[in-house]
From TrEMBL, chain B:
Transmembrane segments: 40-60, 89-114, 135-154, 183-205, 225-251, 284-304, 316-337, 349-374, 386-408, 420-446, 458-481, 501-527
UniProt-annotated location(s): Membrane
Keywords on record: Electron transport, Heme, Iron, Membrane, Metal-binding, Respiratory chain, Transmembrane, Transmembrane helix, Transport
The protein, known as: Cbb3-type cytochrome c oxidase subunit I
Record organism: Sphingobacterium chuzhouense
The Cytochrome oxidase subunit I profile domain, residue ranges: 23-567
Predominant cellular place of this UniProt entry's protein: membrane
Record's bilayer topology term: Multi-pass membrane protein
Amino acid sequence: MKFKINNRFRAVLGCLLAVGLLFSTPSFAFQQDSLAQDTAVSAATDTVEEGQVDTAAAGAVADTAATAEEGGAAAATTSGSSSSSSSATVVDEGPQIDPQVYKNLTYYILLFLIVCTVVAVVGKVLSIYELTRKMNGKYNPFANNTFQATLFIIFLVAFLAFVYYGYAVWGDWAWRAAVTEHGERIDTMFIITTVIITIVLVLVHILLLTFPYIYRMRKGTKAYYYPHNDTIEKIWTIVPAVVLTVLVLFGFFTWRSITNVPEDLQKSAIQVEVLGEQFQWQIRYPGNDGVIGKRNYKLTTPMNSYGIDFNDKHAWDDIQASDIVIPVNKSVRFHIISKDIIHSFYIPDFRVQINAVPGMTNYFQFTPTMTTEDMREKMNDPKYDFIMLCNKICGSGHYNMQKKVIVVTEEEYKEWLSTQNKYFTEDLQKEFAATNSGDPKEFTTASLN
Amino acid sequence: MSSTVISHGAAHHDAHDHHQETFLTKYIFSQDHKMIAKQFLITGIVMAVFAMLLSILFRIQLAWPDTDFPILEVFLGKWAEGGRIKPEFFLSLVTIHGTMMVFFVLTAGLSGTFSNLLIPYQLGARDMASPLMNMLSYWFFFTACVIMTASFFVESGPASAGWTIYPPLSSVPTSIPGSGLGMTLWLISMTLFIVSQVLGGVNYISTVLNMRTKGMDLWKMPLTIWAFFLTAIVGLLSFPVLVSAVVLLFFDRSVGTSFYLSDLVVQGEILPNEGGSPILFQHLFWFLGHPEVYIVVMPALGLTSEIISTNSRKPIFGYHAMVYSLVGITVLSFIVWGHHMFVTGMNPFLGGVFMITTLIIAVPSAVKAFNYIATLWRGNIRFTPAMMFAIGMVSFFVSGGLTGLYLGNAALDINLHDTYFVVAHFHLVMGSASIFGMLAGVYHWYPKMFGRMMDTKLGYLHFWLTFIGAYLVFFPMHFMGIDGVPRRYYTFTAFPFMDKWISVNLLITWAAIIAGLAQVAFLWNFFASIWKGKKATQNPWGSNTLEWTTPVEHIHGNWPGEIPTVYRWPYDYSKPGHDTDFIPQTVPFSETMSSNLPHDFEGNEEAIRIQEEWNKANNREVIEG
């Protein structure tokens, strides 16, 4: 008896709470809307006023700055006034957050509490239903078991539909065929892997989610004692092993062909150096001599931010470029270096990525097979560009560290290259001459003295 | 063979029970494995909630990059001025979310809880080999948690170089504000955490090897124990390497050494460091980092094995194969770390070798998945919330594991490395799968921990919302990665090709918020049931393992009398010829003559002869498959 009363009391209380919330919330929201309008109006006037105050304050600060320069006597008073004005702004900052913000939060919390209440009420209703079934002797202890098993079947259907949707829609958004020679090989392997894993994913999930339904516990069912079967286990060890061996060999040779470029091809390729720093990239072409000049990070100056060592004459004709421009169907060897921390040189369309690591040079050599123009036509997007982006966490500007990659025909490339500026600008030449000739000069003056 | 058995006499043990327990020694500085397990679990849950809130914060930023949320300023102050999270703080959120989830929740919260709870219980031991070390292990872990959380109260913010803390970003404070004091705290916290793991690991290993009860030879151990045992070995061998990495990084930051630094010009300033290599750190980090993935997932696999078998009322399929595949994963996990470094400039040939070892590890993983399905086949499946989570765990393990075939393949990894594809992959295979394994464990062993039952309806609600939510969150990320969207990007607005993913980001964030709110159902269920749950019976799931032979009320030393002796393996469910569908490990074969199989006697001629005589006398025919 005691239990029953307690239960009824709780149910009543829950109902009261639910009804109360139901009634209070819409009016609350309504009230909020009207409040919101009010505050919006007042906020507008507030900002106007604040603007005036701000300009006034700015004027005052300027004044004080001027007076501060004039004399020490005035400084004491001005500092006093400026501190008071700053304290005033602090006071202003306090209530800057609109009270509406807090109300919105409360509103959402209340909304969540209502959802909780609804869940609790549904839960109670369900247990009452179960209790009555039990009292009437119609309770099926396996009803929930069947229900959950059915949910697994429904989930299976939804899951497969979701996977299909993902492949069809998002997959379509995501997939662009590679536009480099090695990228095409990667793509083939990607597709083969995708086919294999999709089959496995679907089959495993069909089994994993239908077995619970088929073999759910019901009245009088019994499990089949089946501790092991060596043959089956051998099969499903060997089959994945074979499939994986094929993938491994395929992958291994592809990987070697990408990373292990013969030395003569390395030398005959166009050389481009890319230097990553927070949060931009710098590009250096070797110039007419085809050799990239030495770099020594210790020689970095504000003017020579790249740190090029101009004692190396190969550096004198090195070319500075604002974008990465490369000719189509020509092998290009990128030298990737970093000035400060680790970045990553990543061009998704080219299937190219290598980290830029301070203290060492990494290389990636590839051959683009499509010009930007052709790609734009193919994508039917006149603004489409190949993009090189940073793909290793490098600080606050990591999300926007990009360079355009423009693939052009060979003639266009040569023409473009001839219009680019050299790193060794006149200013740098003067600086270089000054530092180089500076030392002997000092010696001579010293000897004169 | 069975090892040394320390058999406390009942009378002798009673004397122990009477020593005074104060609040401090019972609940705070407890040396009892059951209490320490609860401490690990609750700390883990608190950390999980905290790390989840961090993830919701950065998901909000990603879904609505151009919207102000003034409420964020109320809570975060200068890190969200005007209601927008700053890029530096975004990176802090990502970093601390990762660190807490991987180390505090899925390592300490998972194996700390269940190794402590189940190793003595399922092996038949009174407690851990060293209860004092066990207590220290928890308190080191707790201190690590406190320090990590405290880094949010540092002026320059918490560590923000990613959970992998690659130098030089993590070692040069001018490169990112989070690499100031926040990073120092991260390193201190991690060192303490590793001390905790080593103390715990030594304890687990010595307990498993030395304190098994009579009859409990290694091949009679439940798969949970195998998993914890192998996990502890992996942890013990790999965590100290992280200490060396962390200490060297600490030297680089605070003492001026150059282990990881060379040729740096940060913010226009030429740094004096010379001769170090950032790649060295990556090798040291991933030598732990990859085994860490298995430290996280193996206990979940162990718990799942036990739960699936119990609730399918059927022996786990291929017990030996399950153990060998765990051993295989353990061994291989030490020689695959290079697959995190294919594009860092590591020698490409070495990359190729790591690729081969990496893909081999898929074989034992596949065997495990198939064996789970075979266990379900022709079972008699009972859908307790724990069972639901266990099935969900297998689903995540499969769908996340399969994408490992792309990432383990060096050539394919070129384009997928560090993109959202990776995020999707590891959140499914080690994030969601381990969390589901852990939740399955919590639902299953809650009666053992607190002596009460959790509410099943809330459990189902929790399961379905989380299961669907996790797939909605992580599955679409694969496609973003294939498109080339890098991870740890503060916003997608800087690149035209990412515009199309804004809608998907909205879906992901809403799914994350709903799945996050669904955890309230769990938290309510968990904490309310401690006091208000239905009283548990001694063996609520009809389970075979030893922990269910202990009384519901926790007592010091676990068993009131003598420790029970073990006669059989833990998976005799639905054995034909027996009247109930389970035979606990403590039941001798002499009491189950009607269900014994020749295989059970492991070649003991005498026993087989007796059984055959009995069979003849009772007209029983035995066909063993």
